[in-house]
Design a protein that fits this description.
The complex is a heterodimer of chains A (433) and B (279). With 433 residues, chain A is an alpha/beta fold. Chain A folds into two domains: 3-219, TIM Barrel (Alpha-Beta Barrel); 310-432, no CATH class. In chain A, 40% of the residues lie in helices and 9% in strands. Chain A is built from 17 helices and ten strands. In chain A, the strands form three sheets. A six-stranded parallel β-sheet of chain A has the order 3-4-5-6-7-8. Chain A has a two-stranded antiparallel sheet with strand order 1-2. A two-stranded parallel sheet of chain A has the order 9-10. In chain A, helix 2 links the parallel strand 3 (55-59) and strand 4 (104-108). The radius of gyration of chain A is 25 Å and the shape is globular. In chain B, helix 2 crosses helix 3. Chain B is built from eight helices and eight strands; from the N terminus they run βαββααααββαβββαα. Chain B starts with a strand and ends in a 48-residue tail after the last helix. Chain B has a five-stranded mixed β-sheet with strand order 4-5-6-7-8, with helices on one face. A three-stranded parallel β-sheet of chain B has the order 2-1-3, with no helix packed on it. In chain B, 40% of the residues lie in helices and 13% in strands. Chain B has 279 residues and is an alpha/beta fold. The chains are: A alpha/beta (433), B alpha/beta (279).
Chain lengths: 433, 279
């Protein structure tokens, strides 16, 4: 089997991994080798599905001892199998990198034989890259659950980012669909890596040349829509992971049916992309906007509003906090206004020191007035919107792409229609939350 | 009556224009650089570049306004903003009036316009850090790009650091410039045209491998062409290896037909001499 064929099989097997980021580490180039890494990361291409391609994302092998029902590489699945040799993969990475196709390598693997055996092959690949070829680009390595601590340490010393996939959001789902994996087996290495990173950060302070352990931190991923777990549960788990394990990112992957198992969605079911999108929006609110999971969802409201984003949804439920005066409100309060993001909030704080801001100024600063207009007060002629209620705000906040989801389906209203026009409009806000 | 200034296109030259506006207590109606081919109705005044005067103005900008303002003005000259020279002059005069606060006055039209243009330049440059595709010809790396802004000075530190041990060339077709790097020496030189040799078998092999990877990594069920175009607008596609076809069309020398607009032959240039026509 030639490299082309192997690459095809092993890329195909790796494509369901969501993470393809190359951020979080700064390393200059060197005369003795090739490559560097910049903190913001670089996207090198975008695939037909719109996802960024930053790293050469492949599996070491797609042969797997496990039989997880949701996974395309499960033992019982009849697909062509292949395995890279460490040398082949290292050469491929170097040649792609040299042509500026990629920012580095994302290496994961099926379990070939034992977890230790698999992990050793991955370490060998990374060793060739780092030590023989003096590769200074980005490497993301998957920690193999069940591998020995010594091997995980060796992997982390060579890689920039480590990840352990949490796969499914609850122990119950995990024991149903991935009987050979357990919560303990996943959280074990995750906790171990967190511990090593923490330990390493104190070493760096003491000794400038202490070897770095996974300097770009740790991430994880979970599948959304394969099990009945709710958004609330997923978001709580996400928040817990950020707090307890200090993760850099939690990725969500809308489940694409690859199995006929009766416990999973049927083949041909469309992946829950909107739900995934809402989860990412909420994830950003947790990481950059100072929101808590409990503020966005609670026991009574277990899933996100399909028509408006979580921030707008929070705002219309807290109308008593608005309008916010953009010329006076602190940064943290500005961040909570729909239509104002991290960048525009910073610009507002910077620009208002020199002149009080009017509505048209906000537009220049990048505020999305379509959403923000209901929640702000600014200088200049005030155009108060008469009779603003939760319902009218909701209706106005729905984005154009979500408008097609409305039950009325865009039918033109007629003056002479017998049915009262308000009927449809009144029905959906309650129905959809 | 207001005049049009004509300068040599350099940052120093523009600073001499700035001095001129203060000396003559006026604002030019237009500033023409050597690239501007359009004629003007205003009386044109040639502004000579005096290095000493420019250095004095440059130091004054850093001291009386701020180093950030100097950076903004320098980068402004690399952007594709229409009448960028006028905007920079306006901005610097504003800066001399308000001091270091000028860069933060984002509600001001001049500051905003210049800021947006520079942001656009930085964004494009960052995108090109990813979208530059090198081909290996006899051990040296070569790439062609067609940016809107003059991104080469911004790309230089990134690529020189990354490929410290290589020799490479990035040709900016829009502006007829090339970034050349070899063994610690880097230079941006004017270059009218670049004719690439036939790629060898090894090069073709890696292009095939990359295209295979590119096609395979996409999840069919998630197909989203609009999202892809948002992140990677079609104007970049022309020189991206992943959009060229596997059977690289070989062009016999002597054949001088214009380049077709298919994805396959993005790197195939007609073997003619002189400046390339826009297509």
């Amino acid at each position: 089997m030639d490299v082309l064929e192997k690459l095809k099989i092993l890329t195909d097997a790796a494509k369901y991994d969501a993470a393809c980021t190359s951020s979080g580490v700064s390393r200059g180039g060197a005369k003795s080798g090739m490559g560097n890494a910049c903190p913001a990361g670089v996207c090198h291409s975008f695939a037909a599905d719109g996802r960024c391609i930053s790293l050469l994302k492949v599996l070491m092998t797609n042969c797997c001892a496990y039989d997880c029902k949701f996974c395309v590489n499960r033992r019982s699945n009849d697909v062509p199998r292949a395995a890279f040799t460490p040398r082949e993969l290292a050469d491929l990475t170097m040649n792609f990198y040299r042509r500026n196709y990629i920012e580095g390598l994302f290496l994961s693997s099926g379990i070939l034989g034992t977890p230790d055996n698999t992990c050793e092959r991955m370490i060998e690949t990374l060793r060739i890259l780092r030590e023989e070829y003096r590769f200074r680009g980005y490497i993301h390595a998957k920690a193999i659950p069940g591998a020995d601590g010594v091997l995980i340490s060796a992997l982390g010393a060579l890689a920039d980012r480590m990840s352990v996939n949490i796969e499914l959001p609850s122990q119950k789902s995990l024991s149903l669909l991935a009987p050979q994996k357990s919560k303990g087996a996943i959280l074990g290495p995750m906790g171990y890596i967190t511990e090593k990173i923490k330990q390493n950060s104190t070493e760096i302070v003491k000794y400038r040349h202490a070897p770095r352990f996974a300097p770009a931190g740790q991430s994880t991923q979970m599948i959304v829509g394969a099990t009945p777990d709710t958004d609330y549960r997923i978001l709580r788990l996400t928040e817990g992971l950020y707090r307890r394990y200090g993760l850099k990112r939690v990725f969500f992957s809308a489940y694409i049916p690859v199995s006929d198992d009766p416990m999973l969605p049927l083949r041909g079911t469309r992946p829950p992309l909107l739900r995934e999108h809402r989860l990412y929006q909420a994830d950003w609110l947790l990481r950059f906007y100072g929101f808590q999971a409990e503020e966005l969802l609670d026991e009574g409201h277990q899933s996100f509003h399909p028509l408006i984003d979580p921030k707008c949804n929070w705002a219309v439920d807290h109308m008593e906090r608005f309008p916010v005066d953009v010329n006076r409100a602190p940064y943290e309060t500005l961040l909570r206004v729909p239509g104002v993001g991290v960048k525009s909030a910073r610009r507002i704080v910077s620009a208002r020191r020199f002149s009080s801001l009017r509505r048209e100024d906000l537009k220049k600063l990048g505020v999305v007035l379509k959403r923000a207009q209901f929640f702000i007060r600014c200088a200049g002629r005030e155009e108060r919107l008469p009779g603003l209620t939760r319902e009218t705000a909701l209706r106005a906040l729905i984005s154009d792409s979500c408008r097609s989801l409305l039950p009325s389906g865009g039918e033109q209203l007629s003056l002479f229609d017998s049915a009262p026009a308000g009927e449809e409009a009144r029905r959906w806000p309650e129905a959809s939350r | 009556m207001s005049a049009a200034y004509s300068y040599d296109g350099t940052y120093g030259g523009l600073l001499c224009c700035l001095s001129e506006t203060y000396e003559k207590k006026e604002m030019p109606a237009e500033v023409l650089s050597p690239e501007d081919t359009q004629t003007t109705l205003y009386p044109v005044r040639e502004i000579a570049t005096d290095p000493e005067k420019a250095a004095r103005a440059d130091a004054a900008i850093a001291e009386k306004i701020s180093p950030a303002a100097r950076e903004l003005a320098r980068l402004g000259l690399l952007t594709c903003l229409a009448q960028k020279e006028l905007w920079i002059l306006r901005f610097l005069r504003l800066g001399f009036h308000y001091g270091g606060d000028a860069v933060f006055m984002l509600a001001n039209r001049t500051v905003l316009t210049l800021n947006k243009a520079v942001q656009n330049l930085k964004n494009e440059s960052h995108q090109y850090e990813g979208f530059v595709r090198f081909s290996v010809f006899g051990g040296a790396l070569t790439s062609v790009i067609e940016p809107k802004n003059r991104v080469l000075p911004l790309l230089a530190p990134h690529f020189c650091d990354r490929y410290a041990n290589e020799a490479f060339l990035i040709y900016d077709r829009t502006h007829g410039m090339a970034l050349v790097y070899q063994a610690d020496r880097r230079e941006i030189i004017p270059l009218d045209d670049l004719i690439l040799p036939e790629p060898d078998e090894k090069e073709l092999e890696y292009r095939r491998l990359w295209r295979t990877m590119y096609r395979t990594i996409a999840i069919r069920e998630r197909n989203n062409p609009k999202c892809r175009r948002t992140h990677m607008p079609k104007r970049y596609w022309k020189y991206l290896t992943e959009f060229q076809s596997d059977d690289f069309p070989r062009r016999r020398s002597g054949e001088n037909s214009p380049v077709r607009k298919t994805a396959g032959n993005a790197l195939q240039l007609p073997p003619g001499r002189g400046k390339m026509k826009e297509y």
